[in-house]
Amino acid sequence: MKNTFFAAATLALSSLALASCGEEPVPETTDGIDGVEITNARIVLGPVAGNPAAVYFDVAYGGDRALTIRAADVEGAGSAAMHQYSEWDGQMQMMEALPVALASGDDVSFEPGGLHIMAMDPPAEWQPGGTAEVTLTVAGGDKVSFPAEIRAAGEER
């Protein structure tokens, strides 16, 4: 009992000593990138349960340095990848997208018929009206996360 009291007292005094030195505790890491604003985020489920879902949103960037979105993750999905449509041999085809570069002042839309994220193997728990977290990773490893509303296949994209 005496040792427990001594250990607790030592810990308390050590904390006070650190606080009196002007040192502040180191905050936990948070997901976010200065200058990145995400709006209009939504996940549209496929018409057949279990088929991939599409993720759409708008990105406005006002940071000091250019950045490049290189990967995406969608909470609960088996995997996620950035895709885009492009013409090949006279036909529009969906393909994996190259990383998306953003300079200060850029606005980019991930939208139907263009750049978007495909969420493969969406979980059965995803239901219209719910939300899932989407995380974008930029070159260098920084991340920004945001909630996206889940919509049924026939709802507005």
How would you describe this structure to a colleague?
Helices cover 12% and strands 45% of the residues. Strands 1, 2, 3, 4, 5, 6, 7, 8, 9 and 10 form a 10-stranded mixed sheet that branches. It is mainly β and 157 residues long. The chain starts with a helix and ends in a 6-residue tail after the last strand. The chain has one helix at residues 2-20; strands at residues 36-44, 53-61, 67-74, 79-88, 91-96, 100-102, 107-110, 116-120, 131-138, 143-151. The protein has a single domain (36-151), classed as PCu(A)C copper chaperone (Immunoglobulin-like).
Q: Which regions contain 5 or more consecutive residues with pLDDT less than 50?
A: 1-30
Arithmetic mean pLDDT: 84
Radius of gyration: 22 Å
What is the CA–CA distance across the termini? 64 Å
Q: Classify the beta-strand content into a percent band.
A: over 45%
The CATH topology is what? Answer: Immunoglobulin-like
Number of helices: 1
Q: How would you sum up the major sheet?
A: 10 strands, mixed
* CATH homologous superfamily descriptor: PCu(A)C copper chaperone
What's the level 1 CATH class? Mainly Beta
H and E string: HEEEEEEEEEE
Number of domains: 1
Overall number of strands: 10
User: Structural class from helices and strands?
Assistant: mainly beta
Name its key features.
157 residues; Immunoglobulin-like; ten-stranded mixed beta sheet; 10 strands
List strands and helices in order, with pairings.
Layout: H1 2-20, E1 36-44, E2 53-61, E3 67-74, E4 79-88, E5 91-96, E6 100-102, E7 107-110, E8 116-120, E9 131-138, E10 143-151
Parallel strand pairs: 1-10
Antiparallel strand pairs: 1-2, 2-7, 2-8, 3-6, 3-9, 4-5, 4-8, 9-10
